[in-house]
Amino acid sequence: MKKLLLSLFVLILLATCSSPKTESIQENLAGLWSLKAMDIQDSIGVWHQWNGGMQGYLLYDGLGHGALHLLTKDYEDFDISFNNFDESAPLEALRHLNNSYVYIANYRVLTDEGIVEHERISHSNPGDWGKIVKRKFSFNGDTLILQPVEDENAALRLKWLKEK
After folding, report:
1. Is position 1 within any domain?
2. What is the residue range of the signal peptide feature (predicted)?
3. What is the pLDDT, as a whole number, of residue 73?
4. CATH number of the structural domain spanning residue 150
């Protein structure tokens, strides 16, 4: 009986010890982040600005829901005006829309792996709906650093600054 009680006590202690770490990571992730830099690493390990410079926002609500919007630098300075959901938009406008990348996701933190997993529930590219992607994460002060785990994007690094 003493062994059973001791085992139960140890299990409870372990459960309560691991919980605050996950909670503090969730608290650190929660909020609005603006893209500070999006870089790509070349074959010799040097980081370079990706795609001429990017901007965007990342939002984690602290409850397991998130949103991401990436767009090219100066995206908003496009000169052609067009209506949303209008099939008669000029081809140049439709091409410009390709420079905007948006998705909504459910997320979960894989604490032991240092990974945040995004399960995309909607996406600007219909082919990416429902996909699960993983991002290594780390914090440096008020900066969140995300690096894709998937081979096709593994050379990218995104630095996000927490909005106040």
Report:
1. no
2. 1-21
3. 95
4. 2.40.128.280
Residue 161 in contact with residue 36, Cβ under 8 Å?
yes
- Is residue 8 in some structural domain? no
Residue 140 has a CB neighbour count (10 Å cut-off) of 8
Residue 67 lies in a domain: yes
pLDDT at residue 26, as a whole number: 87
List the domain range (segments joined by +) for residue 84.
28-162
- Total structural domains within the chain: 1
The answer to whether 123 and 102 have CB atoms below 8 angstroms apart is yes
CA angle, 41 as apex, 119 and 162 as ends, to 5°? 55
Dihedral pair phi/psi, residue 86, rounded to 5°: -115, 115
Q: Which residues of the chain are modeled with pLDDT < 50?
A: 4-19
Model confidence, pTM: 0.83
Residues 163, 73, 135, 116: is their CA dihedral positive or negative? positive
Q: How far apart are CA 30 and CA 24, in angstroms?
A: 10
Alpha-carbon distance of 5 to 76, in angstroms, equals: 63
